[in-house]
Amino acid sequence: MTPIIPATVIGSWSFPGWYAKFCADVARHPDSFGTDDRAEALGDAVRLAIDDQLRAGADIVTDGEMQRVDFNLGFYDFLEGLKPLPSARHWGAPAHDQRSRYVCVAPLAAPRGLGLVEEYRRLRQFTNAAVKVPVPGPFTLAGCIQVGEVYRNREAVTAALLPIVNYEMKKLAEAGVDFIQLDEPSFACHPQHPEQFLDIIERTVAGVKAKISMHMCFGNYRGRAVGWRSYAPLFPHLAKAKVQQLALEFANREMAEIELVKQISAPMEVAVGLVDVKNTWIEPPELVAQRLRQTLRYIEPERLHVTPDCGFSQTARFIAQKKLVSMVEGVKIVRRELGK
């Protein structure tokens, strides 16, 4: 039975050091590793990610996105109709311009799917705990794709990706997933057309028989944000999205705009980010509890989950472990105060 105010992660977990080196070695020398070598390493990494989360006391876990590359970059390998572009900058401080880029050379297709059902089945090999499966949204996926001569603009690329994502979410639900997280951080960074955004979300989740949370942050590539960090331009529209939960970041903004939560009416839930993944400082449990009490001024506990601001993929593992423990302990403090 999931307790009140469940504590969970957003999606990704920090790669163990040995696994990060393994992934780099595979990319550099792919012929040195067979399919069994890769499957064994991936399975071990998933087991560790699950174990780290459960040891910390998380109530809902993920596979840590151990098969993925920087949140969404690995998904482009599943898409046909793309040609990779060379990076314009390799040296200097890391930033979003160093992410992989592609150009459309043919209509987009994913005849093999996006690999998410396989991820879920692997996750279930290692745990019977409550889980959720993160899925990158079509607008966010479109952000790394140039239109070429195939599409008019980013909106057209999004429209082409939308049925691919929708189909993958339906296949996840058919496989037994009852909690899916749709990751659409790009909407928070491009809030100019909220009505269009609501339409895209509605079509993306149409017919998916699962609880859906929508995660919207301001970017976390190499621990850096990419947009103006304000949800205000998206309200009140955001509260009308055809999902059952909104996952929003607040810790790295020192709880700015937390009052917006009161505009989110029941029965929609909120997963509130109370731990800053961009900071190496470990928040004490009492600070997490203080932030949670502040949140509870605007929403009842029955509609609340607690998460980090974003995934832990850009955070050193020993820091992620300590942060998640503190987050869980902070939630437990408030549960005791509520008599739960």
Describe the 3D structure.
Helix content is 36%, strand content 14%. It contains 9 helices and 9 strands. The protein is α/β, with parallel strands linked by helices and 340 residues long. A 6-stranded parallel β-sheet has the order 3-5-6-7-8-9. A 3-stranded mixed β-sheet has the order 1-2-4. The radius of gyration is 19 Å and the shape is globular. It has helices at 17-28, 35-56, 116-126, 138-141, 154-175, 185-189, 194-205, 285-295, 317-338; strands at residues 80-85, 101-109, 133-136, 145-146, 179-183, 211-216, 245-249, 269-275, 304-308. Helix 5 (154-175) packs parallel to helix 7 (194-205). The chain has one domain (17-74, 113-338): TIM Barrel.
User: How many domains in all?
Assistant: 1
**What's the overall geometry?**
globular
Hey, roughly how much beta strand do the residues contain? 5-15%
Average pLDDT metric: 94
Largest sheet properties: 6 strands, parallel
User: How many whole angstroms does the radius of gyration measure?
Assistant: 19 Å
Q: Order of strands side by side in the largest beta sheet?
A: 3-5-6-7-8-9
| Number of H/I helices | 9
Main structural class:
alpha/beta
CATH fold assignment: TIM Barrel
Structure summary, number of beta strands: 9
